Amino acid sequence: MEHRHDEILKRVKDELPTDELICDLSDLFKIFGDTTRVKILFALFESEMCVCAIAELLGMTQPAISHQLRVLKDANLVGNRREGKTIFYFLADDHVRTIIAQGFEHLIEERNDSEKSF
């Protein structure tokens, strides 16, 4: 019996996002490839914070944190609000919270599974 996959290929091809959307998604995931940015997102997962608080929390300079916040803001992962002279940063929406939570949950589950196999 010959294996035929024409129908599967057509169905999957029809459901694939455009190359532009795939590229945008790839760029989004690249942003999560930097540990400083991930630490910032985790901090903002807990509370909105100003640059100086994030810098102190992570033991980094304010310019370094500002640079990473700019990358995160350009990717629409964080938002900000001004209160007097202070700018507070926060996660842009629940999608960002979900991405972080799901990624972390995946890692914890994976670690627990590997510990059970020993």
Question: What's the arrangement of secondary structure elements?
Answer:
Layout: H1 6-15, H2 19-31, H3 35-46, E1 49-50, H4 51-58, H5 62-74, E2 78-83, E3 86-91, H6 94-116
Antiparallel strand pairs: 1-3, 2-3
Give average pLDDT, whole number: 92
CA-based shape:
elongated
Instruction: Output the radius of gyration.
Output: 20 Å
Major pleated sheet: 3 strands, antiparallel
Proportion of strand residues: 5-15%
**How many alpha or pi helices?**
6
What is the count of β-strands? Answer: 3
What does this protein look like?
- By secondary structure, this protein is mostly helical.
- It has six helices and three strands; from the N terminus they run H-H-H-E-H-H-E-E-H.
- It has helices at residues 6-15, 19-31, 35-46, 51-58, 62-74, 94-116, and strands at residues 49-50, 78-83, 86-91.
- A hairpin with a 2-residue loop joins strand 2 and strand 3 (86-91).
- It is elongated and about 70 Å long.
Brief characterization of the structure:
The protein is mainly alpha-helical and 118 residues long.
Q: Which features characterize this protein?
A:
118 residues, 67% helix, 3 strands, mainly alpha, 12% strand
